[in-house]
Design goal:
245 residues; 2 domains; four-stranded antiparallel sheet
Length: 245
């Protein structure tokens, strides 16, 4: 019986380090995420998760080490060039315009991201993907927090990325909104994109991730499938506690 070949690597870091005024935040982070994978990055506050995302996406340059998007070395490129090469993200803090409609927010974001080849039709498809077509003409100030978070996902997909990075996508959501997001990721997003999700809600992580990376004190403590991470004594001690044993 033939064995399926592994998927190519979509996103990779090699010995990634980041310093801020002498403070070492990332300390040699090396990991490889394969195409089509859903990778969760978890860890306690101050572990370096946000810095890791910001270095991946070009918001902060790496102090040392390399970042590869597919075969392309994107280390040191500005954020807009990395986005144009196929890495798109959402933000933990909303960047939406409350006095514009859902559709207008998506169109503004696409043009600001220099995705000029993307059409109104593409934006409509992104809104449909996350279930917001019916709200396209509503002001953002009039829709729920959960729908605002989904709009940010729609905006991130509108430029046609290969890799989608979601930073705390369920923060502030109600339980029903969170379950809706889990269904969206599993039923629609994972078949289209390689996904990196930074998330504190372990229900979301355990029900979506193929592989989990545990970041503590700027280093990867452990990587593995959800069941492996759940039962890892070092991870339990550093982050999860006994509730997930």
């Amino acid at each position: 019986m033939s064995v399926a070949s592994p998927q190519p690597i979509a996103l990779e870091t090699r010995d990634l380090c980041k310093h801020f005024s002498g403070l070492e935040v990332l300390k040699g982070v090396s990991t490889a995420i394969r195409a089509g994978e859903v990778r969760a990055v978890i860890g306690p506050n101050g572990a370096g998760k946000t810095t890791f995302i910001n270095v991946l996406t070009g918001i902060h340059p790496a102090s040392s080490g390399r970042v590869f998007l597919g075969d392309a070395d994107v280390t040191g490129l500005p954020a807009y060039r990395i986005a144009r090469k196929g890495l798109s993200r959402t933000f933990q803090i909303s960047n939406l315009f409350a006095d514009l409609t859902v559709l207008e927010n998506a169109m503004v974001a696409v043009h600001a991201g220099r995705c000029f080849r993307q059409s109104r039709e593409t934006v409509d498809e992104s809104l449909s993907l996350v279930g917001l077509s019916a709200l396209a003409d509503r002001l953002v100030s009039e829709i729920s927090h959960g729908d605002q978070k989904l709009l940010e996902v729609a905006i991130a997909t509108a430029c046609g990325p290969d890799v989608l990075l979601l930073d705390e996508p369920t923060a502030g959501m109600s339980p029903s909104e969170t379950n809706r997001f889990i269904d969206l990721l599993n039923e629609r997003l994972r078949s289209r994109y390689t996904i990196v999700i930074v998330e504190h809600d372990m229900n979301v992580v355990m029900n979506t991730a193929d592989v989990i990376s545990v970041l503590t004190l700027g280093r990867i403590l452990a990587e593995g499938k959800p069941d492996e991470i759940r039962t890892n004594p070092g991870v339990q001690e550093a982050y999860l506690g006994s509730a997930y044993a």
